[in-house]
Amino acid sequence: MTATGRVVLVTGVSRDLAARFARTLAAGSPEHPPTTVVGVDVTPPRHDLGGATFVRADIRNPVIGKVIESRGVDTVVHMAMVATPSGVGGRSSMKEINVIGTMQLLAACQRAEGFRTLVVQSSAGVYGSSPRDPAQFTEDLSPRVQPRTGFGKDSVEIETFVRGLARRRPDVTVTTLRLASLMGAGVDSQITRYLGLPVVPKVMGFDARLQFLHPSDAVSALVAATRQDLPGTYNVAAPDVVVLSQALRMLGRPVVGVPQQAAAPLASALRSLRLTDLSADQLEVLTYGRGLDVTRFVRAAGWQPAYSSRAALAEFVATARPGVLAPQRLQRLVGTVADRISAGTGPARGGVDG
Prior knowledge:
The protein has helices at 16-27, 64-70, 91-111, 150-168, 190-195, 215-227, 244-251, 260-272, 280-288, 295-301, 309-319, 327-342, and strands at 7-11, 36-41, 53-56, 75-78, 117-123, 173-179, 181-182, 200-203, 209-210, 212-213, 232-236, 242-243, 255-258. It has a single domain (7-327), classed as NAD(P)-binding Rossmann-like Domain (Rossmann fold), CATH 3.40.50.720. Strand 4, helix 3 and strand 5 (117-123) form a beta-alpha-beta unit. It contains twelve helices and 13 strands. The protein is an alpha/beta fold. The strands form four sheets. A seven-stranded parallel sheet has the order 3-2-1-4-5-6-11, with helices on both faces. Strands 7-10 form a two-stranded parallel ribbon.
């Protein structure tokens, strides 16, 4: 059954993923006519919205309810959550946008008579990460250790508000997508900043299992959830897993082993130097890893990712600055040494004096 989708409001369109989604939905496809899309954010979009209309509005302000009513919005796709505190001036601002903003938006949705569909971009961060977790989380499993900080904690609170709306408005189709970490060319996130360090600290004795989602696959999943009636909560990720050591080898990054008890102080130091945004919950993911079972969404939506986790990582590697151990850099180094030896400026060819 197809969702109404006459007028779709998309939050957070000043950021890349929401802008790409709004543009794709507004353009339509051979099977689906163009959709009327209204994009909202507190700052003008930095990316092309295509056929979508932009309205400058703050979801933390009750005025968002007037936008929903005046535009005849029947579908809301909530993508205004912030995962990195440095981009909004700190953790307190991040929490205000994520938690207070969601509360105000859902209150406005609840009051809107014509509102019929809600799609929420949540995060796999709701599962946290611990050594006692299952190899793969299904949507019905709860984490052994709840996320205590950062975006994971915000995502848990957001989903609580979303379930509350679903109870109060049983006439509304509510879909929650728990997206894996985005990975691909140009992705700027906690994990990509960590992987981009010249020398990467890695907790000794652990090799985290990582699952990624290419931005184009995230967009296609959000489009599928918006165009269909898919009530419930779904994991969305590429099905394969890449371990952290494989990712670092692909990037050519030197690794320094860090004792587990020193990892949190080191992450704090890196945050103070603005080299990464790693929160405690993200550090746990990079230590213990996390896996998602995506069977439910694949079956319900007929969705298949175009990129595997490894392919998404390979695209990021191709556009990232090569590490000192990257094959292309090693080839250049070997070539330089060979040229110097052949020119007589390199190391002597005789034996070593004893």
